[in-house]
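[Q] Does anyone have a clean structure-token version of this?
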Amino acid sequence: MIAGQSADLDFERRTDVSLTDGLAMAYGKTAALLRCAASVGAQAVQAPQPQVDLLSGFGGHLGAAFQLVDDLLGIWGAPNVTGKPALADLRC
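[A] Here you go.
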């Protein structure tokens, strides 16, 4: 998760961020957190590994989707809805 956050901050100083870079950041940041949250219960009760893997994958995809939507809202979201100034993320 720290690597994903570090990449996100690094993007603020770059003009060459690719889609691949953005997806790697999303999967290394919020997706990492939700991967853990979604699977830790199954791990704690020693569920079969295929179940742990499915829950981990679900959490990862959910976290990446959340991160990408949050990033889009930071650019195009209405400030009265997001609580962020319009275009704040894009300016950074």
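[Q] Thanks! Anything notable?
[A] The chain has one domain: 2-91.
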